[in-house]
């Protein structure tokens, strides 16, 4: 057999052989299996054939058999390094298919963002909380653990939203876009940390209005500051977005100023009567704000959605096509699992706040106003800045200011109503300095975005105001702000 194969190989390369014979031999294929058999006969490893390009190749290495003899390392590379798929997910055997799908969902989720490298802090934070490490360690480890968990939550939400269409997808984003702040605040509210809850809500709004939007304006302005002829230009976004945003944020500011003003007017009344009046006002206002938020969703996503589209003549700002990788059920499972893990980390972090504040190095207000919003909005920060650099300012505005509207008109009123249900007297009466800082921030943002254009100078102004506010709360003593919430023993 070996001599016959060598003879056939010689005929393929011998110029004396008739061309038709060589063509016939070249077209011959041999179904070779991994054990080296072809049609039941052993094929020597040195058997050669001529390929279509005229090159002589070993039979076992030609293109007809390369797939069946692919090296094993390709399988392992696909199993561990492919960010979108895994082998075995369509296997007819359910005992191989379901483990493969579970592994695929886990791998795709882990590869969704480079921030997921910080997931190493999740087990460390849980161990620190269980073993009662120092307050600084417990707070810090769980602080860094929640950052990648927020990114995973954002990834799963986007996977679901892209499959549900614009309207329902918008509702999903509205519900889960601020899930981290909501989870942390619920944990703190159950623990009676109303001061932390109020500060985290206000801090999340200020973080999106000033820090995120300012970074979008700065980065987008620097990367897109020159026109086709080298002249300085501004980025633009839909006029409806600017007008509606300014109106809603002014309404949110009024909902905070009025309780503070009423508290000042009732200064001569007994404390119990003042607190009762503030509580009634806060709960009634929360119901009104929730109704207005539902109307805003209907207005923006259905009846007047054309007002929020890029204006004619502007550069296209549509979002890039995204093909969902996870199925809706897989993304939902990731969403539920991540939410459960975040609740554990948030519980440990909130429990360590009192001990951390007792050291006198940091105040509860600074933790809620600055630190917690940074954790919850980490994924949104990155997303908004990336799309701003790509000159998609409508999308960046939707991520930054849309999140602020959600916190002001949905999450904060919902927490007031939740406190009512569980017996925690959460109100909309914020400390005076916090209220003034929020009102001034809304005023500056309104003047900045009302023309529907942005540049890096306006972004720098927003960032400067955020730094000034953060510095003010950092420089103030731990007990500088009086407690404005109702005592937990109040009935």
From TrEMBL:
Gene Ontology cellular-component annotations: endomembrane system; fungal-type vacuole membrane
Bilayer topology term: Multi-pass membrane protein
Pfam families: Na_Ca_ex (PF01699)
Compartments reported by the entry: Endomembrane system; Vacuole membrane
Transmembrane segments: 105-128, 134-156, 168-189, 201-225, 246-266, 278-299, 325-346, 366-389, 396-422, 428-449, 456-475
Gene3D superfamilies named among the record's database cross-references: NCX, central ion-binding region
Keyword Plastid in record: no
Alphabetically ordered keywords of this record: Antiport, Calcium, Calcium transport, Ion transport, Membrane, Transmembrane, Transmembrane helix, Transport, Vacuole
InterPro entries reported in the protein's UniProt record: CaH_exchang, CAX-like, NaCa_Exmemb, NCX_ion-bd_dom_sf
MF terms (GO), sorted A to Z: calcium:proton antiporter activity
Described function: Has a role in promoting intracellular calcium ion sequestration via the exchange of calcium ions for hydrogen ions across the vacuolar membrane. Involved also in manganese ion homeostasis via its uptake into the vacuole.
Protein name, UniProt field: Vacuolar calcium ion transporter
